[in-house]
Amino acid sequence: MDRTELYRNCCLCPRECKVDRRAGKTGFCGMTSEVMAARAALHFWEEPCISGTEGSGAVFFSGCTLRCVFCQNHEIAAGAVGKPVTEERLSRIFLELQEKGANNINLVTATQFLPTVIPALQHAKKMGLTIPIVYNTGGYEKVETLRLLEELVDIWLPDCKYRSAELAARYSRAADYPETVKTALTEMVRQTGAPLFDRRGMMKKGVIVRHLVLPGCVSDSKDVLEYLWDTFGNQIYVSIMSQYTPLPHVAAYPEINRKVTDEEYEEIVDYARFLGMSQVYIQEGGCVGESFIPPFNYEGIERNV
């Protein structure tokens, strides 16, 4: 099967734009069928069981199927930054990251390019890629698309951003996000099963669900945690993130144009404890700031000469 046919009448994500991206047209993600990426380098700011001390081999793809108004990686999400990458070069990038000692290959927002990413992964595995594959996503995924990745992805790293359809519509133009992420998470857990770690404490298989705390949204954050615990229990790990950074482009949304307070974050962490959640990553103070946003300077994208 020529998977690039999936770029025609594109329905890879829940937006189902049905445009012919092979003909150079773009849908919501803003991308044609030409793969664009902004960075491929060791990344040290993921959860400890993903980055470790050696780093995660993160490949940041351009474009996004969500494009949240508060996006911390807005430059690449909007497609303003990125260079073309062929399928052959992408395979080589994966192998180069493994050679640099990466704990895993971390595919950051790759859904819009899966018809190219999948064969690139398959080829790299044939050429000696053995480290785990991490799929880093906003959680707005179709089950049919996720099933294309079965037996290729070892670790799912999705967001669960909202339980409120109103918040999802306002900040991500996706009122269906709460229901869509439920089916996506269920499929991810089905594919990987129980979490598995090596002797160093690095995750080899499993699901880590991230939740970025937004200012003024404590009630919805509690709803997210309650849903995750009631539905999945200890089948997953949860990462409660305090690193929300109010960048200039959120000025049009004054209610989130500020940092999350220590009190807000602690209230949510305390609620996780109240629920009985034990497999939880939390962030210490000082995680807010643009220093935690990597430079999208095309490191690792072009072949070293």
Automatic annotation (TrEMBL):
<dbReference type="GO" id="GO:0003824">
    <property type="term" value="F:catalytic activity"/>
</dbReference>
<dbReference type="InterPro" id="IPR013785">
    <property type="entry name" value="Aldolase_TIM"/>
</dbReference>
<dbReference type="InterPro" id="IPR007197">
    <property type="entry name" value="rSAM"/>
</dbReference>
<feature type="binding site">
    <location>
        <position position="71"/>
    </location>
    <ligand>
        <name>[4Fe-4S] cluster</name>
    </ligand>
</feature>
<keyword id="KW-0411">Iron-sulfur</keyword>
<keyword id="KW-0949">S-adenosyl-L-methionine</keyword>
<dbReference type="GO" id="GO:0046872">
    <property type="term" value="F:metal ion binding"/>
</dbReference>
<dbReference type="Pfam" id="PF04055">
    <property type="entry name" value="Radical_SAM"/>
</dbReference>
<feature type="binding site">
    <location>
        <position position="64"/>
    </location>
    <ligand>
        <name>[4Fe-4S] cluster</name>
    </ligand>
</feature>
<keyword id="KW-0408">Iron</keyword>
<feature type="binding site">
    <location>
        <position position="68"/>
    </location>
    <ligand>
        <name>[4Fe-4S] cluster</name>
    </ligand>
</feature>
<protein>
    <submittedName>
        <fullName>Radical SAM protein</fullName>
    </submittedName>
</protein>
<feature type="domain" description="Radical SAM core">
    <location>
        <begin position="60"/>
        <end position="156"/>
    </location>
</feature>
<dbReference type="InterPro" id="IPR016431">
    <property type="entry name" value="Pyrv-formate_lyase-activ_prd"/>
</dbReference>
<dbReference type="GO" id="GO:0051536">
    <property type="term" value="F:iron-sulfur cluster binding"/>
</dbReference>
<keyword id="KW-0479">Metal-binding</keyword>
<dbReference type="InterPro" id="IPR058240">
    <property type="entry name" value="rSAM_sf"/>
</dbReference>
<dbReference type="InterPro" id="IPR040085">
    <property type="entry name" value="MJ0674-like"/>
</dbReference>
